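Cross-posting from the modeling subforum.

Setting up a comparison between two proteins and wanted a second pair of eyes on the formatting. Protein 1 (sequence, then structure tokens):
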Amino acid sequence: MGSPKPVRNWTPTVLRKFAAGGLFGALLRRLIAAAILIGLIVGGWTYAWRTWGEAGTVSRDFIVAPENISITPPPSWIHADVKGEVAKSSSLASLPLRDPQLVDKVSRAFAAHSWVASVKRVSKHYPARLEVELEYRKPVAMVEVTWQGEPKLYFIDAASVLLPSEDFEKEVAQKAPHFLRISAGDVSPTGRAFGTPWGSEKIAGAALLADTCQGHWQKLGLYRVLVDSDPNAKPLFKLETKAGTRILWGHAPGSEAKDEQSPREKIAWLEQYVVKHGPLDKSAATTSPGVDYRLDLRYPTGKTPPQTARKGLETKR
């Protein structure tokens, strides 16, 4: 038998020279040792995480349950279980505290609730706990509509957002005296989805007017907001007492015509008028045929100038 063939060394010539000695050989050996050490550290850390660390993050200290979510306490006019409804509809039963999308997910879930105007802040805390700061919608008026031949009342906020009727159905008789009414005629809400705007420029303007009158309308003996149109087809609003006396308010707050008084000026003028002349049903009732109001709050005089009555108002741009 012949001698075995020698095994050829395939190590590159340059590396063999480095490994043989000298500065470059020492450097290479150190680099190889460092690479092996780093590999051992990474491998060990990965093994340790999978064995002990990852299992720890699924413990109760890292999983947020609905009972560990605290929210801004709802005001007295909200009877709904806001947190419970959000947790049920948005699958917030078990939330990993380490989820990088957790804050955004919880924020979007609460923002979708019909009683929530905005989510101010969501903060995470250890052990598993969330704090959610909310701004709630506040009802400012009741809209009178006729639906399938039946009179209905819908509550809205200052942004004309339709509020959940179930929170009011059992207490409408008690709550009604605390809100201005808005006569909508045949203007029904678009879609009838709670938590969404009514969808009408007229109702949006009336809601702003009702909000402006908060803290004043009861003292003035007001009862209802009526919607009309000016000569340019812009919504024009009137205030009405329960006995039917009407006062021309003008355009919606923020949409006043040129030279029209501001909302604050209108309210101050009307309050001074009542102090001086007495209740509106006695002092402001009209006796002129074909005219359903005596006072025009658009002007400091309380009266409509003759030329304006003929030509209408030029709306501000």
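Protein 2 (same layout):
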Amino acid sequence: MEGKKTKVFISYCTDDLAKVQIIEEEVKVNFPMVELIIIAYNREPLKPLSEKVLFGLKECDIIIPILTEKSMNNQWVNQEIGVSVALNKTIRPLVQNDILNKLKGFIHDKVDMPYLFINSSTKGEGHRDFIKHTKILIQDIVNERENQIEVISVQPAFKPSLESKLELIEKSRDFKSKREKILKQHDTFESAEQNVELLFKHVQFNLDRLKDRKIIKGWEYNFNYPKYFIFKSELHSISFYWKLAEHEKLKGAILEVCYYQDYLVTSNKLTENIPHERGMKVTYQYQYDVDENLNLGWKSVHN
């Protein structure tokens, strides 16, 4: 792995271009082991992510979203964060400190935010603080990558002490309590909803190209309740279905992905009961959940 550069994707809105240039200059001068991926293009509303952006997100090791008052509701920034979560990328946001409580979705005030820069009325002060936290963030990224060495796992020759066991039990209880609290919040439910819609739009974007090549026959979707997306070909069909057990609550909610053989014929009753008798091959189910680091994401459900 020696000599390989760490690829960092910068997610930003055009109003924050000056901050992107600060990161570029800092990396150029002090961090030659880091390669930035910065996509500059016309970001028109209601347009899907370009192939160049999707390729950059797939290629990068880490994504740095620059979240400010101008960018926190930006369509492009939110889509790029959503796709990064779906790709299981490491996300290290640079966040304007006075918008922290306003953030919703994948990045929110319930997770660790070590890179908060001030939004000072004094231009020089805010500028210096952004540079300071940029340096800290990039250095942390470099340190993390350098510490990723192969370790041979060996079984200890002794059993953990009682104190160690009690500590693990206490950590487990603390995590369960925090997890339950996060999953009950309405912001978390909205994050799941947004992620499902981003998934549907991402699938539709890729299907547009396949339809031009006459590989895909067509698709249908509903972004209201119940949310579903189905696409069809002569050989197989696939459906995505967002099932809620309770109105606007995550408890019992399932994202179901079904693969069918042959062409799937649908009807108005599809969302009530997908016709399993039509040669279905396999079903996958996912729940929106919290991992050990209190990050939100999709967890496979074994049924």
